[in-house]
Structures are given as C-alpha cells and as structure tokens.
Amino acid sequence: LDPNQPYYVGYRLKPYLEQGYNSGGGGYLLSRKALEIYMRNGYNNETLCPDNKNEDLAIGMCLANLGIYPHPTINENGQQRFNGYHPSMTLDGWDQAETWIYDLLVSGFDGISRDLISFHHLEPVEMQLFEILLYRVKVNG
C-alpha cells in the first residue's frame, strides 16, 4: 500500500463502529499519511479523539472522526493476515464470529494464511514453538 495514502490496517472487528475498527490484540498499522493526519488533527483533540479505556476502539473512533477507516487486509483466498484471536479459533471456528468479526472468517487449515502477520492470545511457550517451527526446523523436500 502507498504510505502517502491514509491507511489503517489490521484485524477488523464489527461492533460499535459502522465500518469497524482494528483489534489492538492482533495489532494494526497506520500508514505514514494516516499517522500524520492523526498527529496533526486528532492527537490533542478531545472532541475528535476522546479517551477510552479500550485503546483499539478509541483509536478506531478517532480515525473514523478523521475520515480514516479500516482497510481490509484479507488475502485473495479470504484469509486473515492479522488475527485477533488464538490460532485454535481459526482452526476450530467460533460461534461468536458473526457478531465480532467484520470480514468473513475462513476456518480450518484453509483459514491460516501463507502471508500471516499476527495472532493474538498466544502464550510465551506457543510463541517459542512458532519461532522453532518457522526458523529452526529444516524442511526436507
């Protein structure tokens, strides 16, 4: 994406805002332009950017007030790149998905993207396992 355009990307959640907001747990990114708009017009503006105990919702509300909305980050296979939940919820599915997740959730093994960026709710030992499997295990063949 062009960093000179105002992009706000991540794992879109559905409730509270019409166009959604990105999960803080799965992480989100602001383009250079989006950050510039936020710093120039929203950072010290309590009217446009009121404080909220939920940081991800607060920044989503603030950016929406500045005309910046979440940009979809699902890939061409409908898979999430950012994931606001534990991998088991992607593999097993989740009965609350329609209430919380803005973009359709692909579940099962087909739900794990090859261009994965993040997962949320991982324990430290699970992060270590990912490190081992990604960077230390040699794939033969």
Automatic annotation (TrEMBL):
<keyword id="KW-0472">Membrane</keyword>
<keyword id="KW-0735">Signal-anchor</keyword>
<dbReference type="GO" id="GO:0016020">
    <property type="term" value="C:membrane"/>
</dbReference>
<dbReference type="InterPro" id="IPR026050">
    <property type="entry name" value="C1GALT1/C1GALT1_chp1"/>
</dbReference>
<protein>
    <recommendedName>
        <fullName>Glycoprotein-N-acetylgalactosamine 3-beta-galactosyltransferase 1</fullName>
    </recommendedName>
</protein>
<dbReference type="GO" id="GO:0016263">
    <property type="term" value="F:glycoprotein-N-acetylgalactosamine 3-beta-galactosyltransferase activity"/>
</dbReference>
<comment type="similarity">
    <text>Belongs to the glycosyltransferase 31 family. Beta3-Gal-T subfamily.</text>
</comment>
<keyword id="KW-0812">Transmembrane</keyword>
<keyword id="KW-1133">Transmembrane helix</keyword>
